[in-house]
Amino acid sequence: MPLSSLKPKMRPHSSLKQEFLKKWIMGLQRCSFSKKNMSILERKKAIKFSADIAMASARNGTTCWSRSLISNASKEGSDIHVVEQILGSESDRPAVENKVPTRRASVCKKIVKRSCRIRRRRRRRKCVASAPSSIAKHLVRKRREVLKSLIPGGEFMNEICLIEETLDYITSLRVQVDVMRSLASASVRASE
Amino acid sequence: MNRALPEILQCSDMTVLERQRARLKWQQEQFQQHQQESYFSELSGVFSSQTGHVQGFRQGDLMSCGGAAGGGDSVLSDVVMTRQLKPDPGLETAWPELGKVDMGAMGFGPCGYGNGQSFDMNQAISRTSSCPPAVAAAEVKGNLEKMGLAVERDSLKKRKVEKLQNSKVVAEDDSKRIKASEEEESKITGPNTRKSSNNKKETYGDTSKENSKVSDVQKPDYIHVRARRGQATDSHSLAERVRREKISERMKYLQDLVPGCNKITGKAGMLDEIINYVQSLQRQVEFLSMKLATVNPRLNFDIDNLYAKDVFPYCTTNFPTVGNMAQELANHPPYVQFNPFQQVVSGCGVEMGINSTEMALQRTISAPVSIPDTSFLNTSCFTGMQQIQPSAAWDAELQNLYNVAFTGSIEGSDLKMEM
């Protein structure tokens, strides 16, 4: 991922918001068209789902987290039409692209898990080093694992990639929160 | 053998590795030859003694050396030479700075050539400089101090140097060295390499800047890395160091992005903040989607109507500009935002984890979250009725978008999607 995209304020955020909003509303339309009388939780899920997919598709497959988010969403059969709607005409391409990495990714995932298990076993046998540097490393490693669990598709990234993806993910989340908040407030206002 | 090196260097038949090895050999020989020569006493007034160590050489370092000269810290100006001999011009330009320090006419030969793998760092405490013979000849006349810079921090990652370029650069460097009149002096008291602080560390960015300054002949297509003082020079640790620098660079970006990260310096602390921030953002998304679900029982977000409304005093408090930011954020938006929702939620009896702690969290978080978002918020209100900064283009375009979306939808003429 190019580092230039990470530099703060390089992207025109308003256009990003527009894109997100448009795709989100499209997805919601598709959702509500298919299901009638959704419960509140279902609605919430649909809203969040469409928002996530819209956010991910706004990246056009440039970031790892967006790809993995879309591929995870595509796996469930029920909502795949929403995904297709949002992705639009490109729905074929990303779907094909995502299938291959998910297979490879699942293999990688198994390998990573196996190695983590082995490492953990080894670590247990070893006595905990009292050197401050190793303690610091341990702390950092733990936090990195937590971060990996937060970012979609984070388990497969090395550290550099993880931080880049985090940056991008944070900006996307912010955009999402902003747009949703403004929409919510406007809706609340309008309903009064 | 003394004179042989430049010729060997200029020979374009040799591979880069062979050239390095030749340099190293020559340098070692120089070291052995001049080991007895010691002109440290002359410089004792200038520099205090310090154990020899190899270090990266750069302009900043030279400045600090110059500055520290009075203070008594001596610095062994070893040059970490990359294959393209970049540091030489760097040294060269920095030497005039040293001119301020009265050092006597000593020539300095920053020839830290060599092959990192084959050279043991610990023997690098040589007092003699491995100057090319031409320079040595010119400067040995007077009180020449030869610094031993047997450092091979061979820190190149990719080795695609063109031999022609190399020879050109060597020639350039030789001439520059002859011109140089200043030198760096340090006392090497023994075979102990003392690891200094990282003040001599040179980042990748700096080397690349020097690169661009140095010569237009070179087109570096590899990463220049300088090893730290007293650190291992094998490729693994260097690669790891590059990796670490990349990571820290990206962490700096994260520091700007995540609010409240500026005060924290440790990696673990920063990661903590980042994790908290990401979690809070994700929770906000959940929360807002729930809110939207309750507010809008039919999932029909009638954007047109929202646009049509004239009065949105709520918006002004919700999207303050930079000017009004501080006061407004402090007081109104979180409360105004949550009160109606609270009523709605209590009415619906929805259990979503919206409890008082969550609300409190939202309150505390929306304030800091929004502050760095001024850049986002300036043109962000899509209701279009922002009293402060109407962004006409954004609104008009968005309305058009929605018109298109609505009319082009499957529902046909129906503008609203009704359940």
UniProtKB/TrEMBL annotation, chain B:
Protein name (Swiss-Prot/TrEMBL): Indole-3-acetic acid-induced protein ARG7
Transmembrane spans: none
Main localization category: nucleus
Keyword Transcription: yes
Source organism per UniProt: Hibiscus syriacus
Region of interest: Disordered: 167-221
Positions with biased composition (Basic and acidic residues): 167-181, 199-221
Gene Ontology cellular-component annotations: nucleus
Pfam families for the chain: HLH
Domain BHLH intervals: 231-281
Database matches in InterPro entries: bHLH_dom, bHLH_ZIP_TF, HLH_DNA-bd_sf
Cell location: Nucleus
Molecular-function annotations in GO: DNA binding; DNA-binding transcription factor activity; protein dimerization activity
Record keywords: DNA-binding, Nucleus, Transcription, Transcription regulation
